[in-house]
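Figure 6 in text form: structure in, sequence out.
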């Protein structure tokens, strides 16, 4: 015990502890300083993206949505719609709107994905809103297809039809076919509720539910038609109409043939 007490009183031990403390402080400072350039680069990169997005917005969107995205008589406000709404609308070619109408139609996108990301970053900088889904959000491989079918028929089939082929709504609007939509677009549509579609927040359909619906729609997109013509998969009405049309056409041809023979 006396030996340890003497050692603790030794000035060499005090100097050694002081050096260790200084080395620790220096190492911590170096770590912080080295991290700052990376953080600064990330901040500068985001600021550049937002600025580029603002320039694209002013050139292609402000005439309808206003210089400050506040909305006009020609287009709604975009404040608070989030990056996901921009990615969906511009990524599917619905925006910029080709011409005034009851509903925006899916077209070939007018911007590259980098430009879409820039505009999405600018709109997201104006106010909080739904973000673009991550790869983890879109990972639906482990989802239950049968459960997705139940959720789809409960929440989506009233407008998009049981086979996802779309259907008519009021005042010239319609629910589009889902046969060309990818996982990201389906998720963003549920998240943002474009046009006449309601918003399915995580409180209504959580991420797992959304993944199950995406898997079900993907299964419908990939399913074959072993019975022959799909006829849009619109059900017995379309099939019956096709059959009656074919029968009447055959009867008319027979009547014409009989008339020609009778001459």
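Output sequence:
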């Amino acid at each position: 015990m006396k030996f340890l007490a003497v050692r603790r009183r030794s000035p060499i031990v005090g100097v050694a502890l002081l050096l260790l403390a200084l080395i620790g402080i220096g190492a911590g400072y170096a770590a912080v300083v080295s991290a700052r350039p990376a953080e600064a680069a990330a901040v500068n990169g985001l600021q550049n993206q937002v600025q580029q997005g603002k320039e694209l917005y002013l050139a292609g969107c402000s005439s309808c949505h206003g210089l400050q995205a506040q909305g006009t008589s020609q287009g709604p406000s975009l404040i608070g719609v989030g990056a996901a709404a921009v990615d969906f609308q511009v990524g599917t070619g619905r925006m910029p709107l080709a011409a005034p109408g009851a509903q925006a139609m899916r077209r070939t996108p007018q911007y590259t994905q980098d430009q879409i990301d820039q505009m999405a970053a600018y709109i997201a900088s104006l106010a909080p809103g739904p973000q673009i889904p991550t790869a983890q959000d879109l990972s639906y491989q482990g989802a239950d297809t049968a459960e997705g079918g139940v959720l789809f028929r409960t929440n989506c089939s009233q407008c998009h039809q049981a086979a996802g082929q779309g259907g008519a709504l009021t005042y010239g609007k319609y629910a589009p076919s889902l046969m060309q939509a990818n996982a990201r677009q389906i998720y963003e549509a549920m998240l943002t509720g474009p046009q006449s579609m309601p918003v399915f927040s995580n409180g209504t359909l959580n991420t797992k539910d959304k993944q199950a619906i995406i898997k079900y729609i993907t299964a419908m997109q990939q399913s074959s038609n072993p019975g022959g013509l799909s006829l849009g998969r619109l059900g017995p009405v379309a099939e019956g109409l096709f059959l009656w049309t074919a029968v009447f056409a055959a009867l008319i041809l027979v009547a014409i043939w009989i008339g020609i023979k009778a001459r």
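Caption detail: The beta strands are 167-168, 174-175.
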